[in-house]
Amino acid sequence: MKPLSRLRPLPLLLALLVGTGSVRAQSLTEVEVFKSPYCGCCEKWVEHLQKNRFTVNAHNVNDVPAARKRLGMPERVASCHTARVGGYLIEGHVPAADIQRLLKEKPKAVGLAAPGMPQGSPGMETATPVPYQTLLVQADGSTTVFAKH
Predict the structure, then answer these.
(1) What domain range is 55 assigned to?
(2) How many distinct structural domains can be found in the chain?
(3) How far apart, in Å, are the Cα atoms of 124 and each of 6, 13, 38, 116?
(4) 128 is a domain residue
(5) Which residues of 37-57 are buried (b: 16+ CB within 10 A; e: fewer)?
(6) Could you read off the pLDDT of 94-105 as tens digits, one per residue?
């Protein structure tokens, strides 16, 4: 039998990580996006998510408001696309960091929204960004500020 000091640590570490589920926790999170096939800023938001370790399954739909309504996001926080991730809905150009925080904190909510199409948000980059807020949307349609940008 080899002394412990001569065992290679990497295979042992990998076996421990797989056994505890830590490797699975680092895998990419899938986001399902419902967007217009003609929306360039939606494509840029999808790219933003992909660059931030999300796997994106994009669905081109002809009626984004109908998809939003079917999914359960209130119309009053509407934007140009709606997404679903980890049991939450994401409306509009919400930064990936906000989504990651949502998934980590797991608040009781419908999801997050960046209403409208804020200049300077992911997918809406511009030389003249404007301050905007990401809202936490509750089941009754009420919102609170989740993050300021």
Answers:
(1) 28-148
(2) 1
(3) 54, 42, 15, 11
(4) yes
(5) eebebbbebbebbeeeebebe
(6) 999 999 999 999
Strand 81-85 to strand 88-92: parallel, antiparallel, or no bridges (unpaired)? antiparallel
CATH number at residue 68: 3.40.30.10
Mean pLDDT for the chain? 88
Residues 6 or more apart in contact with residue 87 via CB below 8 angstroms: none
pLDDT at 69 over 60: yes
pTM: 0.81
| Contact (CB, 8 A) for 79 and 108 | no
**AA letter at 146:** F
Residue 3 within a domain = no
Percent of the chain whose pLDDT exceeds 70: 82
